Amino acid sequence: MARAVLVPLWLCWALGCAAPPNVVLLLMDDMGWGDLGAFGEPSKETPNLDQMASEGMLFLDFYAANPLCSPSRAALLTGRLPVRNGFYTTNAHARNAYTPQDIVGGIQDSEILLPELLKKAGYTNKIIGKWHLGHRPQFHPLKHGFDEWFGSPNCHFGPYDNRALPNIPVYRDWEMIGRYYEDFKIDLRTGEANLTQIYLQEALDFISKQQASQQPFFLYWAIDATHAPVYASKHFLGTSQRGRYGDAVREIDDSVGKILKHLQKLGISENTFVFFTSDNGAALISAPKQGGSNGPFLCGKQTTFEGGMREPAIAWWPGHIPAGSVSRQLGSVMDLFTTSLSLVGLQPPSDRQIDGIDLLPAILQGKLIDRPIFYYRGNEMMAVRVGLYKAHYWTWSNSWEDYSKGIDFCPGQNVSGVTTHLQEEHSTLPLLFHLGRDPGEKYPLSLQLHPSSPAASPTFHVVSWSSEQCQMHIMNPA
Amino acid sequence: MARAVLVPLWLCWALGCAAPPNVVLLLMDDMGWGDLGAFGEPSKETPNLDQMASEGMLFLDFYAANPLCSPSRAALLTGRLPVRNGFYTTNAHARNAYTPQDIVGGIQDSEILLPELLKKAGYTNKIIGKWHLGHRPQFHPLKHGFDEWFGSPNCHFGPYDNRALPNIPVYRDWEMIGRYYEDFKIDLRTGEANLTQIYLQEALDFISKQQASQQPFFLYWAIDATHAPVYASKHFLGTSQRGRYGDAVREIDDSVGKILKHLQKLGISENTFVFFTSDNGAALISAPKQGGSNGPFLCGKQTTFEGGMREPAIAWWPGHIPAGSVSRQLGSVMDLFTTSLSLVGLQPPSDRQIDGIDLLPAILQGKLIDRPIFYYRGNEMMAVRVGLYKAHYWTWSNSWEDYSKGIDFCPGQNVSGVTTHLQEEHSTLPLLFHLGRDPGEKYPLSLQLHPSSPAASPTFHVVSWSSEQCQMHIMNPA
């Protein structure tokens, strides 16, 4: 560990002074910031994840790259915003890109994915669970750097009639080995499905195999039990105070504990970097039975309020990360791309814009790197966070039409002029919040472009703003 | 510790096998469930309180006895609901009792306060901070069991003109030694006041004195820095991401850390039971600048939603309480009365109804004691919690009249038919919530008195209900 502080890790790996670490990314589906005990879930039913945090580093300000799964996942694996990697829509304003079963698009060959780069460094790469970057053969994960796959191109939606729409297929590598609801049972009535157990066993087996072969590995464990319709295996059903959603969380918590213990048992925990996070905020449209919690934050999935994009996040790497540490670094799932490369001693591609940053200085040395967070819906940048300030250029929850049908992205919450059902533009005078004093985005600050006098409450100049360059500077004259 | 498990503590003390422990109650003012890092505050700025939790026991389901300070404090010290100890109003329906400076009432001589009982067992009792149980001489804390007092009969409201209304006095024992804003400065503009430092020093000095004299003690540390107008001393001002309220919390966090370290340094931590909690939920009418956070819960102070009465709570007693434990025991500030007596080996008075229960089986042996929680406003029982179910018999946030003036007990929150601005009665068919699946009280369960058929979603029989006996039974036929 001392050596890691003295010599940059990539240099150390390059010089051959240690083997590059394995990388395990545990990506949850629709899990919210407030779903873990360590983040204040009132039932505190995640002892393994809480222990992971107490042995590693908790990130308080970690973000999805988009409030919807496909673009967020594409961003994670490319290190690039969805507006760069193509996962956005232009058919209507501020619409997030989703890849339903019958979509013809997917991740482009021109994009360079994390496993493609790791493969060149001798890594074996496996994806377990949900891919979500395209259904057609050219988008198959094994065409984009992964060596192994066990899982599906989409969520476990269904069951379908298998005529107009087939059930979602499940793959082992190139082979389709079955379909959800048919070969992989999900009982929508009881919520019983043993998929998380299958995904867990896949992970344990892969880790064992790699350890035996002494090959470094990248494991992308993208399970989906917390995406509606939520499920858990029989052993966990009915065990949570939180209902079926909580049962799914408990099974995931147990599984993460088993993965970490497996790494320890095999003696490779100090050479395996593990990161736990989620693809977007809790889907409040499915709450409370099928959706999670965004804690004290505003709204949920699909929105660019904090509840839509702030994620639970824990880094774990015994012997390297100080146990029980907490980081206020603004982080993004896109940083997992750049950080993983850095761990391995690789540089990100230089022929394109990479939005993810290397978090290792924050993780290993407790540094705070100055960087903004951009909140997109589709190809519209709705908001920007700089430090503790967040400026909304557009506000929108969902349309009056959808809302009148009972679709509510912000149930029980209503902030006048903020959780708007019309798309409201504030580009001239952004709606400004201080997320330290007001994490729930309930109290917009009055923004004075030219304050006549210093005031007790802070005032702000927006000195430059360019949506093209995705840059904003906020100055506090006080 | 093993002995404490084998022999009831009171029996052990009675048999003389160990000295009875000191009791320290750290009671915060208007601090909310969501204000501590350990409870998910997104800035996580309470390292000392979080460490207290990691060394002790965190209570997730601990409640104030009332959503307002005076009745809640009267209940804590008497172990009795405000409707029994007299701290309620009858001048209007569901109005909480408050003791402004010019009130003529206060705690009755017929009530038996915790320090009165502890004094008989040889304890020296000190209150530091806010009393709030009456201004007139007959209500003075030293007439009700306390041996020492440093503090005030009320909050630090003001400044007043000292003609129509004098500034709030500050007492040392029987002597009025000054007044807020005059002799004890509070700068409302900057928020600077060194009161918490004074209260801290009083606590440290008292503990040192008692330790030196080998006398057991009860310290009731009832500070008020988090009650609007919030304040902090110069060293802490501007240090929090959360603004001035956060500065006050940081100073309190630092002070609690110093008190615990002082106990350890004096070698009496294993013989001192410490409990940290608050008198009611965060005052959202003062948020965000002067009010705290109730985390994911609904509304705040003055209301009987979870945000009004669920409190942060930590028990700390090294060598006795298993470090890092978490309790789901339904607890109340009234239990601190009965639990403190139990610690000392005393029985609660048998000539009256005591509502507080002995939490020692929960704290020392991890037991779960079946008991309800009653939510009162004034003399109206608004709601009852039994297990994870909460039934509202009355709903009310505040009046339309107050709300139209901008007084909002539930800012940014609006649950149709729940956060009502009219007092709405549901006694015939209580509004039922499941606090595990829905801690935010956003999704009332449909209550079917006579379900015709078993359904996938649970249904409930209210089999008996008596407001007089304050009892309710809920059966789940599924």
Your description of this structure?
The structure is a homodimer of 478-residue chains. Chain A is an alpha/beta fold. Helices cover 22% and strands 20% of the residues of chain A. Chain A has 12 helices and 19 strands. The first copy, chain A, has helices spanning 2-6, 9-14, 47-55, 69-78, 82-85, 114-120, 195-213, 244-265, 306-309, 335-344, 360-365, 400-404, and strands spanning 22-28, 57-63, 124-130, 148-152, 169-172, 175-179, 217-222, 272-278, 310-316, 325-327, 331-332, 373-377, 380-386, 389-392, 394-395, 424-425, 431-434, 461-466, 471-475. In chain A, the strands form 4 sheets. In chain A, strands 1, 2, 3, 4, 5, 6, 7, 8, 9, 10 and 11 form an 11-stranded mixed β-sheet that branches. The radius of gyration of chain A is 22 Å and the shape is globular. Chain A starts with a helix and ends with a strand. At the A-B interface, strand 2 of A face strand 2 of B.
Give descriptors for this structure.
homodimer, alpha/beta, 11-stranded mixed β-sheet, 19 strands, disordered N terminus, hydrolase (chains A, B)
Stretches of chain A where pLDDT is under 50 for at least 5 consecutive residues are: 1-7, 450-478
Quaternary structure of the protein: homodimer
Radius of gyration of chain A (CA) equals 22 Å
* Helix/strand class of chain A: alpha/beta
Tell me, rounded to a whole number, the average pLDDT of chain A.
91
Number of strands of chain A: 19
Number of helical elements of chain A: 12
Q: How far apart are the first and last residues' alpha carbons of chain A, in Å?
A: 41 Å
Main beta sheet of chain A, described? 11 strands, mixed
Largest interface: A-B, 45 and 46 residues
Taken from the alpha-carbon principal axes, the silhouette of chain A is globular
Q: What percent of residues of chain A adopt helix (DSSP H or I)?
A: 10-25%
Strand content of chain A: 15-25%
Active site (chains A, B): 69 (nucleophile), 132
Signal peptide (chains A, B): 1-18
Keywords (chains A, B): Calcium, Disulfide bond, Glycoprotein, Hydrolase, Lysosome, Metal-binding, Signal
Binding site for Ca(2+) (chains A, B): 29-30, 69, 279-280
